[in-house]
Amino acid sequence: MAPSLSALVILFSLFFFLTSTHSAHSHQHPLDPITPSEFFHIQTIISNSYPSLTNNLTFQYVGLEEPNKSTILSWIHSSCSTAENNPPRKSFIIIRANKETHEIIVDLSQRSIISDKVYTGHGYPPLTSEEQTAANQLVLTYPPFIRSVKKRKLKLSEVVCSSFTVGWFGEEYVKRNIKIQCFYLDGTVNFDARPIEGVTIVVNLDEMKVTEYTDRIMVPIPKAEGTDYRKSKSKQSKDVMGMQDGRCFYIDGHSVSWAIWKFHISFDVRAGLIISLASIYDQEKEKFLHVLYRGFISELFTPYMDPTEEWYYRTIFDAGEFGLGQYASQLEPLKDCPANAVFMDGYYAGQDGKPVEIKNVFCIFEKYAGDIMWRHTETSIPGEVVSGFSITLVVFFQWVFVEVVLTRSIRRIMTLLGFHLKIREVRKKVTLVARMVSTVGNYDYIIDWKFQESGSIKVEVGLTGILGMKSTEYTNKDQIKEDILGTLLADYTVGVYHDHFVTYYLDLDVDGDNNSFVKSTLKTKRVTGDTSKRKSYWTVVKKTAKTESDAKIKLGADSIELVVVNPNKRTKMGNDVGYRLIPGRQQASSLLSDDDYPQIRAAYTSIMFG
């Protein structure tokens, strides 16, 4: 399994500290997510516009129609950036009605529809949880499936089903179909470990009926023993966790301030956690400088490497097809987040347009794990005493005034004798973490944005949950004489090979929005003449991208440094103000053929930056 991608962004700046606590919301920010009352207004406006389709109208997506970037930046820099002077608030909605997809924009200020277009392109909107549940339940009442269950001597009451998108494999026209995979409980809640293989079920969502059904092969179902992950069923020890309940950050609505950082956090049913308007304090200029206008996970592509009938289509786009926000989990205090965390709720529109609340969808907390942000020990300055040395003298002589006199005297004596004592300075690495967990099917994605006092932003996705497993006839590796397309995990159980490609949208505004993308490479140079005993050295060669194509960086490229700079702004030394992009230590690259249909859909995975 390929590791998740990480992007690390670094800007060097001096420190500025803000110590504060959680506060109430003072006014609505233009980038705040849609509120519950706004969801109700949207549902009413849309329903009244389609009165004859009330029972055949579904809300597939409801989110904020963001104002133009220039409008937001003007509002921020305005001396009257209050709720009364907010730009017009709008919402972007995708509905299904009469087997058509409508893209609608609603002006929430005027409470009216200002745009309604029928989408005629390829693909379909994200699935709702309600239609997936209906399709899963439909299968359990389908007579051919019931016969397949009885043929395998299984109990229908112990069968559960799950929905999968079907992908695209060159068809000119694709119906709005999903495929259903069913599993067997009977002794465990970990149904992913007990798939019912050999059965393919296709459900058309517009008709809500089974349109294709095959029962191709019978494969032994893996045992339930040892698969239940509940703590009550395991022998693991109790949780051990200790964290002081201290906070040094300030939250006003969806705006967060901490140390040298200010940013806005919001929730979207597709992207989940969105960070906007991240700014860093420059102590020399005594003001905040913009770094990141907007950042979020734009897609999470998960292709499985099994070309058989029951698995080939599992090439899933977790954000676009299912929604990282729709499947965000309620975070549990003291387990998902430490004691010093502050929690925020999220809302999205259900299939009927009414708001659905996710309690504790985000948590924000300070984290210190004993790491060092910066340190230095200096031994070359005569007479300087490390801070701990004086304390030792206090303990030994037990009088403070003696410590002061002796410290001064010892400094003089040590200097005269030629001794050089140490200066030691250490800064601990404290991080502010904004976290969300999205459970899409069998995987739980722990999504973290980490802000640090060094001026860096680190984005990470941790993968946990349950592996994607298929049934097999094998119980031991020695029996295998073929490529089983995965790893034998237990009796009759294979963990299928697959990838996770996490792609971020990062709109950087480094000290302004007129930025350039600079690629720096290291080049070996030969020393000519007799000017040095060295034969070679390396130097840095910089190239500024002139087009979007020029800015694309392919995965696996030679060592290269990537910096977004503002060529119109200079540091005190005259260098361009910039922010460095550092990919994770290991980068995932697709090994699929360029003409393979999943790779055609996810062609962007061959580019690291672009």
TrEMBL record:
* Cofactor binding notes: Contains 1 topaquinone per subunit.
**UniProt xrefs under InterPro entries:** Cu_amine_oxidase, Cu_amine_oxidase_C, Cu_amine_oxidase_C_sf, Cu_amine_oxidase_N-reg, Cu_amine_oxidase_N2, Cu_amine_oxidase_N3
Q: Name one GO biological process term.
A: amine metabolic process
- What Pfam families does this protein map onto? Cu_amine_oxid, Cu_amine_oxidN2, Cu_amine_oxidN3
Q: Which residues carry this modification: 2',4',5'-topaquinone?
A: 443
Instruction: Report domain Copper amine oxidase N3-terminal positions.
Output: 125-222
Q: Supply the EC number(s).
A: 1.4.3.-
Q: Which residues form a coiled coil?
A: none
Q: Where is the Copper amine oxidase catalytic domain?
A: 244-394, 424-605
Q: What cofactors are annotated for this protein?
A: Cu cation
The GO terms this record gives for MF are: copper ion binding; primary methylamine oxidase activity; quinone binding
Q: Which residues form the Copper amine oxidase N2-terminal domain?
A: 29-117
User: How does it get modified after it is made?
Assistant: Topaquinone (TPQ) is generated by copper-dependent autoxidation of a specific tyrosyl residue.
Q: Does the keyword Lipid metabolism apply?
A: no
Q: Where does the record locate the signal sequence feature?
A: 1-23
> Which residues does the entry assign to the active site, renumbered to this chain?
318, 443
Q: Which UniProt keywords apply?
A: Copper, Disulfide bond, Metal-binding, Oxidoreductase, Signal, TPQ
Q: Which family does it belong to?
A: Belongs to the copper/topaquinone oxidase family.
Q: What is this protein called?
A: Amine oxidase
Q: Which organism is it from?
A: Papaver somniferum
